[in-house]
């Protein structure tokens, strides 16, 4: 799957399940209780989350854990069903907690309990990520299906770091998110509607892997092209060589951007808690015309929220910034 390409899927999904398998081995050794059947449940849960979970999640589902309306807010409809595959890991958690009191060593017991909680917290983040990804994909399809003449959707992403012929996975420590999610850029967007003959309606800053799957696929194709090029013995040492290689791919163009730093605007400070806000509307009428209306998205699953609630904030236009 994406374990070799995308860090969140690797850290939240693949690596976390490996940690859980290791935890079960430790519990088995400390309690002399066989974890064979429990490991089989974990493996089935891993396979289900990778291949079926997002297919089964719906805007409203009779199963609470698969109901996206509940995950992203509230759902007034009933949820009488329980889908066994989606709660399998919760059953594993319950069984392990019931087994741990067999351990006489208090320090070992507490450490394994803490490790179990860390694994389950990470699993909640994994589920939340999968649900947000599906939500963003559905929203993107909805927007495309309802475009009017003259409307357009623009998707932008960065390849965060490219080590020629060395690795495919992006290095999160070199994240370029601040380049397109910062106060100066948002205030620039406010000016666009006032300056150009177009109307920006909304700006969304998605987390990695959420809503940009088309570009993620594009990047991995480029990465594999580079790896193949180097492995067959061709040189790839400069940006110009990289551009020429990418230009050989079908429907791909490569351009060099020369940034004139001398024309960069003065620093404008930072909007409070800007990193929490991922969805921005740019109203053209009303109180906040020419400004921003921001919203914090959240996703809850089994009562655990990744972002602590949904909130919104507004920025009114001001001569000094918009």
Could you explain the architecture of this structure?
This protein has 322 residues and is α+β, with helices and mostly antiparallel strands. The protein has helices spanning 7-31, 36-51, 53-56, 68-71, 84-99, 106-145, 177-180, 183-195, 213-231, 239-247, and strands at residues 202-204, 279-281, 292-296, 300-301, 304-305, 311-315. The protein is extended and about 70 Å long. The model is unreliable at 1-5, 165-173, 302-312 and 315-322 (pLDDT under 50).
Q: How much is the radius of gyration in Å?
A: 24 Å
* Total of DSSP H or I helical runs spanning 4+ residues: 10
Largest sheet, in brief, is: 4 strands, antiparallel
Low-confidence stretches: 1-5, 165-173, 302-312, 315-322
Net shape: extended
The strand line-up of the biggest sheet is 1-2-3-6
Summary, kept brief:
This protein has 322 residues and is α+β, with helices and mostly antiparallel strands.
What brief labels describe this structure?
322 residues; alpha+beta; four-stranded antiparallel sheet; two-stranded antiparallel ribbon; 6 strands; 6% strand; extended; disordered N terminus; disordered C terminus
Topology:
Blueprint: H1 7-31, H2 36-51, H3 53-56, H4 68-71, H5 84-99, H6 106-145, H7 177-180, H8 183-195, E1 202-204, H9 213-231, H10 239-247, E2 279-281, E3 292-296, E4 300-301, E5 304-305, E6 311-315
Antiparallel strand pairs: 1-2, 2-3, 3-6, 4-5
Helix pairs in contact: 1-2, 1-6, 2-5
